[in-house]
Every structure is written in structure tokens, then in C-alpha cells.
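TICKET: design request
STATUS: open
ATTACHED STRUCTURE:
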């Protein structure tokens, strides 16, 4: 088996004219049809394998260590009998592409094999519980194609994407250290993709490079232990020498009024063009008044095609663009929080909380703040730097109720201050983050916490006072209704910042300079 090496992604925007885009869309259409064919064939072979006698015999065996080898052998025989494997699906993709001349002309052999592997992995996720159902791709949902290596077919060569006779130049910022680091590394393979920005399709190339990503000096990951306490709207951290209470997605506008207004427009347009799919309007009592209410959607109407006017599609695209900008800006803000936490240590301890449970109770708040994205990014970056994220049980430790004396006092969610009979006071989230530093195998070591607290108390008090002043400033801004205009959210991601100087005119000069990289 070939040894794996660390990888990172370098993304670059592409210069695509109308003729090149037409050819790219044709190739993506061929790739989509081949992917759907492989997905359908893989699903059929899995169903036949599950219906085989070997599979049924394996299922009937008790799940014990004694029967493990026999069960695995029976499952393997059932799959081999029906040619259910990654290699067999790749062979099917090659045969299908050859049978359809235009697919073989548009998609090279390496991309065909990668599409087959992608379809096989999608079916495997449903087998092992990673996904609930299979989804065949429609043109608007098929957004990427990638190769197996950078040697032939779809590849990166001379600062441009080369795919057969098609050559697409990239926009390269020669003053960006991150981009220069990626271009100086060996490219393993290339991924081509598109996104919709401001209603227009923009094309990008992702270079999967060998090595580790470039890290700015200010974002260096430090050694040390950190305890964090995850909340709905903020995260508290306590390290060896510092502490803080940082809000998620700070100053990110929700645009609820704008989105609600667009949704009402969409609803009116939908009703006007699909009158047969709605129940008639009716009168109902609202207090002492009689009001007219809109009829609900008829039973079974959702399964039939709907008429979508151009006005409806334009409003839907505008709503999607607002939500995309808001999401991208929230992600960029949460990535800053991740870097801020990792500057103080990479050995992280935190409670095992259920963000899905929060979503059921605080849906909109979770959507706007994205604590789950913060946690996944923190885990990924910490482990990439050689650190570790340890999660422990909330029921066994009960940090939000535990005091330094070991007593547990139940508190409501509205109580944000720790208080006990001895006069001890501390912000609830900061104190929970402090206690999490001393949890070992789901057990809180009060002795360690008591010995360390006098040295960290001034640090915790400074963080608490800083949080109070920040809360005051947020209230002032909220009362003054300070709203960030949509134009300021147009450039949010790193790629958008790269492409920003080239939006008005395609920079031929910079492309010429980039050839020397």
C-alpha cells in the first residue's frame, strides 16, 4: 500500500470566457451523467449482494469475536459474487464511457475512475450509517470534478489548468504568501469547481498539494493546555497564562427582515403561478375581527412539477446570495476565533455537548452563530498541529454546577454568575472552562483546581471585566441599530479577496507576472 503524505488545498480563481465556459459545462454534464450511471449501478449491485445467501447467513450469525472472521468472509464473498467493489465500479465506468462516445471524448480515463470511486463511496456511506439516502445529481448540484494525479488528463501546468486541449489560466496574487507557498509545493491532483457569486457562475481550481499549509506568524499554534466551554453564542477559554470569553460570528448581521420580505415575494409569485396546487382562501376569526387566510398546499401537490416564473427565480437567487454572504462572513469570523484559541495551546479539553440538541431549541441562534463549525475547525487545526481535543461527559462532571469546594448547586440557564456561601463569585462560562483543564477520564480533580485557582484568578477577573465592557458596547450598538450594509459582505472568503482586484477588468499584466513563479 502506498504511503500517504500530508496534504493541503490551494484555491485559485480562473479566467473563463464564454467559449471556455461552454466547453467546461459540457464536460461537467458528461461527468454528471457518468456519475449518476455509476451510482445507480453500484446501488443495484449492493441490493443483489444483500439478497444473496452469503449475506443473509452472515447477518444471522451472532455478533461476537468468535464469529467475526466468518462474518467478514461471508460479506466479502457476497460482494465479490456481485462485483461490488471500487475496482469493479471503475471498470463499469470505463465501459460506460466507451459505449457513449461523447462521454469518452469529454472525460479522460482518470476522471472517469475518480467519478466511479466517488459514486462507490457515496453508496458505502449509506451502508455504514454516514448518510441516510442516495441522491442523484442534477446540473445545479454537480459542482466539482477532480483527477487522480497531476500527470495526465486534468492537471496543473505552467500556472494554468490543462484538460486535454482546454487551457484555462488562473488569477495569481504574487504578493500572497499563502498562494506562493502552495504553488511552490508539489501538486498531487487537481479539482475543478464552480460557485454562484452575485448570480454569476465563477470558476476555481483547487490544487491538492503535498506538505503542510502555510501558517502566518500571528497564527502560530502554541504548546500548552486549554480548557474551553462551548455555549450557544460564545466560547470561553482558559489557558496557562490567559483567558477570554469570545462571541461567535461577532457583528454578523442576520438580515431577517430582508430575507422575510423576499420569502413573502416568493410565496406570492408561487401562488399566482400555481393556483391549482393551493386550497381556496377562507375567512377565520382573529379576536373580534374576521380575516381572510390563505389556503394551504393541496395534498400530493408537492410531488408534481411547479411553475417557477423568472421573477420567482430572480428573487430566489437574491435570497440565496444574501444567505451565502452571511454564512461566509460568519465562517471567517469563527475561523479567527479558532486561531485566537490555538495561539494559547493545542491540548484542548471540553465538554461533550450536543449541538443538534441546541438546534431543536435555539434554531435561528445556532444557524447564525455556528458553534458546530467552530468546534470542527478547532479539532481539525489542533490535530493537524499535533495537538489533541479531549471531550468528557457533562453528566459526570457537571462543571456549570460545581464549585471549588466540591459542592454542586443547580442553576438555571439565565444565571451566568457562580456564587456560593463563602462569597466566591466568577463568570459561569469562564469558571467552567477553568475546571475543564483539570478533568481526567471524566473525573474532575478538585485538588488540582484548588491549587491552580489562586494563580489564575487575576487572569479570569480581567477576562470577566473585558466581557462586561464588550457586552455594554454591543448593547449600545444594538440600541443605535448599527447595520452592516450588504456591500461590505460581498468580499468575505480568502478567494473573494484574491479575485476582488480583478472584478472590473481581467488583469493580463498580473497573469504575465505570475508566469515567473
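STATUS: resolved
RESOLUTION: sequence designed for all positions
ATTACHED SEQUENCE:
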Amino acid at each position: 500500500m502506498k504511503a500517504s503524505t500530508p496534504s493541503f488545498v490551494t484555491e485559485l480563481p480562473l479566467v473563463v470566457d464564454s467559449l471556455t465556459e461552454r466547453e467546461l459545462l459540457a464536460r461537467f454534464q458528461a461527468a454528471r451523467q457518468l456519475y449518476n450511471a455509476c451510482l445507480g449501478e453500484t446501488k443495484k449491485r449492493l441490493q443483489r449482494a444483500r439478497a444473496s445467501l452469503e449475506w443473509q447467513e452472515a447477518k444471522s450469525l451472532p455478533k461476537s469475536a468468535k464469529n467475526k472472521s466468518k462474518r467478514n468472509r461471508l460479506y466479502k464473498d457476497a460482494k465479490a459474487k456481485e462485483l461490488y467493489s471500487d475496482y469493479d465500479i471503475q471498470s463499469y465506468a470505463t465501459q460506460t464511457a466507451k459505449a457513449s462516445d461523447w462521454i469518452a471524448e469529454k472525460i479522460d480515463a482518470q476522471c472517469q475512475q475518480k467519478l466511479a470511486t466517488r459514486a462507490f463511496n457515496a453508496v458505502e456511506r449509506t451502508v455504514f450509517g454516514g448518510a441516510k439516502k442516495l441522491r442523484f445529481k442534477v446540473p445545479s448540484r454537480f459542482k466539482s470534478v477532480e483527477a487522480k494525479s497531476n500527470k495526465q488528463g486534468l492537471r496543473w501546468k505552467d500556472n494554468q489548468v490543462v484538460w486535454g486541449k482546454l487551457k484555462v489560466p488562473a488569477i495569481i496574487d504574487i504578493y500572497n504568501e499563502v498562494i506562493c507557498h502552495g504553488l511552490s509545493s508539489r501538486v498531487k491532483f487537481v479539482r475543478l469547481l464552480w460557485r454562484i457569486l452575485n448570480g454569476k457562475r465563477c470558476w476555481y481550481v483547487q490544487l491538492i498539494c503535498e506538505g503542510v499549509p502555510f501558517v502566518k506568524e500571528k497564527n502560530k499554534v502554541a504548546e500548552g493546555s486549554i480548557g474551553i466551554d462551548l455555549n450557544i453564542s460564545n466560547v470561553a477559554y482558559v489557558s496557562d497564562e490567559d483567558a477570554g470569553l469570545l462571541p461567535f460570528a461577532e457583528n454578523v448581521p442576520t438580515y431577517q427582515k430582508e430575507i422575510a420580505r423576499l420569502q413573502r415575494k416568493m410565496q406570492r409569485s408561487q401562488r399566482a403561478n400555481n393556483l391549482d396546487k393551493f386550497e381556496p382562501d377562507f375567512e377565520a376569526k382573529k379576536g373580534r375581527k374576521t380575516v381572510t387566510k390563505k389556503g394551504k398546499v393541496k395534498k400530493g401537490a408537492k410531488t408534481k412539477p411547479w411553475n417557477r416564473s423568472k421573477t420567482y427565480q430572480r428573487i430566489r437567487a437574491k435570497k440565496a446570495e444574501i444567505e451565502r454572504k452571511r454564512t461566509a462572513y460568519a465562517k471567517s469570523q469563527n475561523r479567527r476565533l479558532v486561531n485566537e484559541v490555538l495561539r494559547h495551546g493545542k491540548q484542548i479539553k471540553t465538554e461533550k455537548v450536543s449541538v443538534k440538541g441546541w438546534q431543536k431549541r435555539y434554531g435561528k441562534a445556532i444557524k447564525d452563530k455556528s458553534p458546530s463549525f467552530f468546534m470542527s475547525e478547532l479539532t481539525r487545526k489542533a490535530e493537524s498541529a499535533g495537538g489533541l481535543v479531549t471531550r468528557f461527559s457533562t453528566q459526570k462532571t457537571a462543571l456549570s454546577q460545581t464549585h471549588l469546594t466540591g459542592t454542586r448547586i443547580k442553576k438555571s440557564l439565565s444565571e451566568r454568575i457562580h456564587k456560593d456561601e463563602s462569597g466566591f463569585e466568577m463568570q459561569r462560562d469562564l469558571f467552567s472552562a477553568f475546571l475543564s483543564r483539570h478533568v481526567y477520564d471524566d473525573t474532575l480533580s478538585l485538588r488540582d483546581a484548588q491549587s491552580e485557582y489562586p494563580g489564575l484568578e487575576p487572569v479570569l477577573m480581567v477576562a470577566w471585566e473585558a466581557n462586561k465592557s464588550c457586552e455594554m458596547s454591543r448593547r449600545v450598538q444594538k440600541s443605535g441599530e448599527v447595520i452592516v450594509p450588504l456591500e461590505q459582505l460581498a468580499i468575505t472568503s480568502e478567494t473573494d479577496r484574491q479575485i476582488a482586484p480583478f472584478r472590473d477588468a481581467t488583469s493580463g499584466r498580473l497573469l504575465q507576472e505570475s508566469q515567473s513563479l
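CLOSING REMARK: Residues 489-493, 495-517 have pLDDT under 50 and may be disordered. Residues 75 and 201 are 45 Å apart (CA to CA).
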